[in-house]
Specification:
By secondary structure, the protein is an all-alpha fold. Helix content is 65%, strand content 2%. Helix 3 packs antiparallel against helix 5, helix 5 runs antiparallel to helix 8 and helix 7 packs antiparallel against helix 11. The longest helix is centred in the middle third of the chain and has 31 residues. Bound molecules: Phenylacetyl coenzyme A.
Length: 333
Amino acid sequence: MYTQAMDLINKNDNDHADAPDPVREQAFEARIAAGEFIEAKDWMPGHYRKTLIRQISQHAHSEIVGMLPESNWISRAPTLKRKAILLAKVQDEGGHGLYLYAAAETLDISRDQMIEALHNGRAKYSSIFNYPTLTWADMGVIGWLVDGAAIMNQVPICRCSYAPYARAMIRICREESFHQRQGYEALLTMMQGGTAAQKAMVQDAVNRWWWPSLMMFGPPDSESPNSAQSMRWGIKRVSNDDLRQKFVDATVPQAEILGITLPDPLLHWNAQRAHYDFGPIQWDEFWRVVNGNGPCNHERLKMRVDAWESGAWVRDAALAYAKQKTPQTTAQT
Ligand code: FAQ
């Protein structure tokens, strides 16, 4: 069980954190500048707390909604081995969501509040999970590109200034790297030993997932309203554009080994910058998806809301049982 939610924010101390408190703010900024980690019980400015709730809860929602595109293929996996791996991976993503909800709960927000924000559309989740999974090759490509992008983004969060989030990320990153490898290995199998049709299926999946994977890192730094403050506070350690570039640089050689073409005619090595240059990203598509109008937004949210509503009887039964049990336990002690 993931227990850090027992370590809750110090409410008395933090009740007035929204009001200006220059002395405490200065002490807080000095701790951040010294590279110290902030624990739930420490004083923190209201805006720091809200930024963390926004990012961690949206990250948790992404993990939970992110189970849906892959679970679509569990019953159609080509072999028992692939089915077992995919089942384990999807379960891992559910676990990541729970670690992250627990980390966000330390900041004085309940899980019900976070879930309500997801269901009524106030909270976001990653744009990538609003694309459909059309073939088995999508399972390999999600592992390789989507988990690969997730790791690139998440390894620096292991050093996030908010310790409960950083601790959750250490566990998550270990599992994500297994996810990335299993995806790449599934693709290698199809590309090295597969039929022409299987190879074409891999290329088609890469063509569809490449650009949305680059969008996962968020808008360009120049148009990222949260980045400057989050970087100053050590919530984000590396900027959206820098992470995107690192991802492209790491992925191009892997694509060459696979023997697939990345769908970008402008992609080439720039010796002067010592990085790959790549073509323009369609940011209008990104914002359309983020604002609820991607190919699967409606379907994904509906599945989450339906699951929540059809699980109401389980929550009611668990609460009724807990209520019944409490007086007896007290009487016995
Ligand atoms: N999708 O100012 P910024 C995974 C929003 S987990 C949707 O740059 P920030 C595991 C952003 O929220 C994937 N919205 O924001 C897995 C903000 O809106 P707001 C999730 C996006 O927070 C693998 C607005 O745009 N990972 O894949 C996206 O500084 C396989 C302006 O943006 C995380 O959540 C987007 N892609 O930087 C599971 C990692 N990008 O909130 C299953 C933690 C931006 O002001 C299968 N999060 N927006 O209304 C982060 O690192 C950051 O929050 C960023 C965004 C980098 C995502």
